[in-house]
Specification:
There is one protein chain. Helix content is 83%, strand content 0%. The chain has 454 residues and is mostly helical. Helix 15 packs antiparallel against helix 16. The longest helix is centred in the N-terminal third of the chain and has 37 residues. It starts with a helix and ends with a helix.
Length: 454
Amino acid sequence: MNQTPTKEYLFEEMPVPRAVLQLSTPIVISSLVTILYNLADTFFVGMLNDPVQNAAVTLVYPVTLAFNAVNNLFGVGVSSAMSRHLGRRAYDQVRTCSAFGFYGALASGVLFSLLCRVFQSPLLRLLGTDAQTLDATLGYLRWTVLFGALPAILNVVQSYMVRSEGSTLHASIGTMSGCLLNIVLDPFFILPWGLGLGAAGAGLATCLSNCIACLYFLVLARIKKGNTFVSMNPCLLARLTGSQVRDILGVGIPASIQNLLNVTGTTLLNNFTAPYGAAAIAAMGISQKLYMIPMQMSLGFSQGIMPLVSYNYASGNRRRMKAAILFALRIIVVSMLVLTVVYFAGAPAMIRAFMDSDEIVAYGTRFLRVMSLGFVFLCTDFLAVGVFQALGMGRNALLFAICRKLVLEIPLLVLLNRVYPLYGLPFAQLITEVFLCCLGLWMLRRIFRAAGPH
């Protein structure tokens, strides 16, 4: 099968600003919808005015973040390889890579659930649960992880693969269908006038929604059979070569390690917050969920340009590659500056929208204002990592992951919590993003110089 003229035009000839926006806008929108569904759990659970139920959602959050380790291992690694093979017009290799990504995600989702079930008790202790929060946390964990890991992981990996060939609209529709359903189901499952399941109801809604999104991608692959490079044919696995696996894992493993380290950092943050009570945990959780809006916008832009950057890097059009990166950087930096002002000024109202508690608003306002100061640095950091992944530079992405958590953020959490208990915690993230922004710009400059003027 040959690449369709529409996709060739998108990757090779369409004006760069239009191509970047066409690829990135659906992903940013779907990312915002994804945030809404994450916020929906916190919002509707918050309507119960029970800090214990809200704390349960916060405590399980690191485990759901761990899904991203698997998502990145197969999603980021496979999509980067697929886009680069498309640029070289090696279409058989594109289909082989996609089959590897699908069955790798399938096996990993099953294994993830089994491991969490076997080690459930130590896992709950590691997350920072106590006698007060145990039952609610277990209820949320059961649906989001023990039953929900497979559809959650498979949904995201399929979205990455569809996006790699330029079908960002279909990727976004699949993701958004599950998110919107989750928002609709949440109040019915959580609140007393419905099933009244509390945090467990939020987990059940999430699980069902991911199943629907996963089904969308399976049906899409069936309908587009013969007109897509995404394949679920297990026979293609026999054609997989060692070099293809190394190419995929060379990008996927560093991205996966980065997310595992994110889980470690978030778990440590929750454990440092836990001694101050359920109100402090809930406030930190709400702040983290609100922080996801700029984070996912930045991530959406960086992921949106990945197919364009990968394709033009592989095809030798380095001038177009650089133009795409610089245009995306300008757009996202301006957006983050606006959000910084909005968050800093509106922090009290934003926290109170989730829980009308003076204590939680007081905690959350201080947390969120510090976090907002790092938005511009965060987006630059994410864009740099996205470029490294698009170009197959797994070592650069791994360097960032190690610097982010092991060298900077985790040691800073320990240090700042001693110097400035509780309120020093969000400063660790801010300092980390400033440093990584500078490092990212320096490394991008080196890549631009190496690419040359052509």
